[in-house]
# Entry
Amino acid sequence: MTTNDSTRDFGEAAGLMLPVALGVAPFGLLLGSVAADKGLTLVDVLAMSGLVFAGSSQFVAVSLWNDPLPWLGIAASVLLVNARHVLMGASLARSLQTVPRRHRLIAAFFMADEIWALAERRARSGRLSLSYYFGLAVVLYTSWLLFTGLGTAIGAVIADPAALGFDFAFTAIFIALIVSFVGSASAVLPVVASAVAATVVHLLVPGALSILAGAMAGIAVAMIAPAGSEEYAPAAGAEEERA
# Structure
């Protein structure tokens, strides 16, 4: 891949991620506001966003933040919520097989739901380059730092985030990502199965377990359901720049 190709891929991905990053802004502001209410400082929140970079996990951690700090409870909850990353990483691994290991490790750190969804959609067209992946990652990562930090700084101003609809921002983003993947009847079945399983488990056992239940249900149905005409198949000649 030439330098021009890499630059073009990076710019295309960055432009595609920009509106998504703006859509995530309310969620970042809400997280920062809740964190400030729990007593976390701006430095604390920026460090968490920069080192963890996982919105749902950060929200779980902040919601459990008390004195004394329940380390084991936070660790177990975050592990459960982030278990889906194993499945997400496995799906992207097919498209990044030729990428050097050290670059794949960096890519894994930046893998978030929005980045995964847009990268996976790109892979369906035949080629996912590392430049394209990092174009997505850079925009969302910097935006997440900006908005969680801003939410912390003005946390006292946002007296009731739910009244402003901030609490629905995360749900809205995921609905948009799901819709972008549903292109055939066969793709609807895993989505429905995931939604039903997650809802039932949440009603029975409120908490992060519903996320894992939804993911496993969707995967199970996708494995046994008839393949649609738009079944994902990476291009045989897909290659990536080597370092």
Summary: DSSP finds eleven helices and no strands in the chain. The radius of gyration is 19 Å. Residues 44 and 169 are 23 Å apart (CA to CA). Residues 228-243 have pLDDT under 50 and may be disordered.
